[in-house]
């Protein structure tokens, strides 16, 4: 899951330094959607510290996408990932990504979509999916 905090006119979403699974992606998408509809929220901060995708256990496929889950041995497509990224990309208020600690894989994708990225000098940024030849846009 993700941690969500509203402080005045700023919503902060933290990936919580945990691997990202479907539940975290859904919570992120829902929080961004809620912030978009809240006139009191003027900006969104995304704390991107995370080890990236939880390859071992992404969890249950989101129920709202059940009708779009592909059948077969190739595994699910990246629909939940794309929805979370799209929610940030379409957010019409300023977004700021805080990049510190490890920011890997899907956490890096989310950071790249933000309007402004602020990285600490000690941040470790990377994409371990590259070793598997499977970026988010086309992984199985």
Structure overview:
The protein is α/β, with parallel strands linked by helices and 140 residues long. It has a single domain (3-64, 71-138), classed as 2-enoyl-CoA Hydratase, Chain A, domain 1, CATH 3.90.226. Helix content is 24%, strand content 21%. It has three helices and seven strands, in the order E-E-H-E-H-E-E-H-E-E. Helix 1 links the parallel strand 2 (10-14) and strand 3 (43-47).
How do the strands of the widest beta sheet line up side by side?
1-2-3-4-6
Question: Which architecture name does CATH use?
Answer: Alpha-Beta Complex
Number of domains: 1
Overall mean pLDDT stands at: 83
The residue ranges in which pLDDT falls below 50 over 5 or more consecutive positions are none
What is the CATH superfamily classification?
2-enoyl-CoA Hydratase, Chain A, domain 1
Shape: globular
Strand coverage percent: 15-25%
Question: Which H/E pattern describes the elements?
Answer: EEHEHEEHEE
- Number of helical stretches of at least 4 residues: 3
First and last CA, distance: 22 Å
Describe the structure concisely.
The chain has 140 residues and is α/β, with parallel strands linked by helices. It is built from 3 helices and 7 strands; from the N terminus they run E-E-H-E-H-E-E-H-E-E.
Write the layout of secondary structure elements.
Blueprint: E1 3-7, E2 10-14, H1 22-36, E3 43-47, H2 79-89, E4 95-99, E5 102-104, H3 106-113, E6 116-119, E7 124-126
Parallel strand pairs: 2-3, 3-4, 4-6, 5-7
Antiparallel strand pairs: 1-2
Helix pairs in contact: 1-2, 2-3
